[in-house]
Amino acid sequence: MRGDEKIFMRRVERFQELLRENDIDGAVIRTLSSFIYFTGTKWLRPSLLIPAEGEPRVFVVRNEVKTFRKRSWIRDVVEYQRVEDLMAGVVSWIQRNGLERVGLEFGVERDAYLLFLKLFERLNPTVEVVDVLDLTMKLRMVKEEWELENIRKAGKIAKKGMKVAEEVIRPGLSELEIAAEVVRELMLSGSEDPKVYVSTTPRAHAEPFRDMKVPENGVVTVVIGADWNHYYANMARTFVVGELGERVREAIEVKEEAYRIALEETKVGVPLNTVERKLADFFKERGFEREYIAGYTHGVGLLIEELPMPTIVVPTRAQRVMENMVLSIIHSPLMLPEGTIKHEDTYIVKKDGLERAT
């Protein structure tokens, strides 16, 4: 498996301590990133059962057991052939262990489906379901050194991908063609699940279109998430094609200045919304209040975007910056009619400042 198994065993033990402190009898982990966090490996579809005390159990499809055990420290691995067998196994585990309060993650991630929650409640009518997202993210927001090493490696891969983007962008090329070249470079460099977004028009979150093409005069924004051992680094750049309009030129200058302000203000102990307010005031003073999207940062780790996520999860704007957090700065773009203006890098928070990973 990748990484020392003791890392993942300690994580489960710490999570079990949090479960007991919150009077939760056990948790059913279905979100992929948390499954990776505790087991040490990526596996579709994830089904991890963690009791407040005792050994965790994983369910995998028939004939996957041998391979899974090579990639994870968990020994209690049960196979199933039909999804009905999986659900019956989960119900049996809950009943056999006498669990009354069971944790699930109420997130926005793949496999955190409302459908699964409703099915779980129907199969376990006497069980109280508790959201444990705050507990898992309490562990995940502050990174261990092994995680930081993976993110640094991912950052080097992301930079290689961005260099390819810079080299290939030209008028007439489609967003999809640009993304394909970047993804190829990222994968050949070891990124197993890269995320690449390309926008030739003003779109904040731009999965590439085959029929959107680079104009003769305009801007192209590329966002890259490269992973190493499932840990991401996130970066974004805006490329100028042809002649700049005055408003675009001014927006780029303002964005660079805002980037510097964000780096100066993001320090251990500072609430994220304190920095956010300063940036909002700055954009207003410079005449870009209407183009600015609120929320200047987000966490980076097993997801390209994870808690704290001020742009989406408003309560996390009050989160204070902590040492060994990994943050993407400055996330929010300026949305102009000519295109999206963005400059974003991944930083590791240290007591004496920010360490740049991309």
From TrEMBL:
It comes from the Archaea. Residues 149-350 form the Peptidase M24 domain. InterPro entries: Creatin/AminoP/Spt16_N, Creatinase/aminopeptidase-like, Creatinase_N, Pept_M24, Peptidase_M24B. Residues 11-142 form the Creatinase N-terminal domain. PANTHER family: AMINOPEPTIDASE, XAA-PRO AMINOPEPTIDASE P-RELATED. This is Proline dipeptidase.
